[in-house]
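Input.
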Amino acid sequence: MSKFSIQDIAVTCDDSTLLAATLYTPTSTPIGAVMIGPATGIKRQFYHAFASFLCEQGFGVISFDNRGIGDSAPRNVKHSEASLVSWGAQDMPAVLTALKEYFPHQKYFLVGHSAGGQLLGLMHNVHDLTAFCNFGSSSGSLRNMRKSYLLKAHFFMNLYIPLNNFLFGHTKSHWVGMGEPLPKQVARQWQRWCNGTGYIKTAFGREVDEHYYDDITLPSKWLLATDDNIANIHNVHDMISVFPHMEAEIEELAPSAYQVDEIGHMKFFSRKCKHLWPKVSEYLLKYCLPVQTTTP
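Output.
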């Protein structure tokens, strides 16, 4: 007998944009509720096995496609006005609101993958979270890339993205194994921010007028793989520096220590690495003490 049910749902943002999402509901009373923040250009189905694992541990879960991605994209991606800023300021807050509606009176958590953990400081309701745990979230700064990966990174960011946006009106990331096709503004901001330091900090006072990074004091855990060419330890520290008052615990995962050939930037969420998933669930469980409610 299944320990949970799965249902596709729609999440409505404040600007009426509809996001495709999947709801994972435990058969027993949830111990907490988790939103999974996806990486840039990654569809929610990628996180299905991981979301199922969290649900089996007793968490209610919502995974989702950001606007312009997967089932939340228009038929022609070049018509999408999505941006990284809109993902953090509009999509993620809407998903957290939905999480609270489906799982009331719980502790709420974010598990962020790459961009999904970078953008939470744009969420107007970020303080509704109890804690968060990220994997592969960093500034992605090209200046901190390993030399062996630097040429590939510069090619994609500074040649492939501008050329694709010019020729097609969006970036065909799928042609080079970098996820779903990207709306042009998403790709443009990604390029600009990775050429700076502190990722989104590059946009403060320009593309970002209001944010909550300075106010976040949530406990957090930052997982990274030693073979991740993007979220290396220097870029993780660079990203954490954007949260000046946040509690941050960092843990590096070496593939050889866990009997896997590769973790990198993406494989943590594959079934081959499922023995690593308790590093997330056990961290969240520490903050799942019962919520005291009063009746009027």
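The beta strands are 4-12, 18-26, 32-37, 59-64, 108-113, 131-135, 170-171, 182-183, 219-225, 247-253.
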